[in-house]
Amino acid sequence: MNTSFISTQSLSTTLRSTVMKGQISLAEATTEATTGRHADVGEALGALTGRDFSLRSDYERVSNLIDTNEIVSGRLDATQQSITNTVDVANTFMQQLFAARNADGGANVLAPSAQTDMASLVDSLNATLNGQYLFGGINIDTAPMSSYTAGSTAQTAIDTAFLAFFGFPQSNAASVGAITATQMQTFLDTTFDAEFQNPAWTTNWSTASSQNTTSRISTTQTVVTSANANETGFRKLAAAYTMILSLGGNALGQSAFQTVVDNAVAKISSAVYDLALTGGQLGTSQQQIKDASERMAIQKDLYSSQINKLEAVDPTEASVRVNSLQSQIEMSLSLTGQLHKLSLVDYL
Question: Is 60 domain-assigned?
Answer without folding.
Answer: no
